[in-house]
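Tutorial handout. Part one gives the primary structure; part two gives the three-dimensional structure as tokens.
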Amino acid sequence: METRPDLDFWYNPIVKNYYRLLVALKEMGKDTSRLENEVFDRYKTYLRIQYSTFKTEFLPPMKGLDSFDKCYKRAKIIDFDGYKLSIIGFSDLMKNKEAVNREIDRSDIAELKRIRKSKEEDDK
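Part two.
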């Protein structure tokens, strides 16, 4: 099975945020008409957008993690071309990958640990 790279966005799963996502997607030229009539379920309403070389996924819950708010407080804020982005913390990302436990996640865990160890050694 071919694995297509993906970019995951974890959003605070409240109705207001779901509809904000739909507005943003519509502004990007995506057809959201089917989604606008769907009944929002904070535990099941995943959004996936396929592109030719990758996909984006908007996730309401993330397996293995406690509340969005708690993880958000631990997130790292970065500036990306003038936009502030919240990036999930390393330990939260690892918890999620361990809980999902697919082959790709196990591979990611090994690679992330290798990168972190290498960075720590460079910082010494």
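Part three, for discussion. The beta strands are 6-10, 47-50, 55-59, 76-80, 83-87. Helices lie at 15-27, 33-36, 68-74, 90-100, 103-123.
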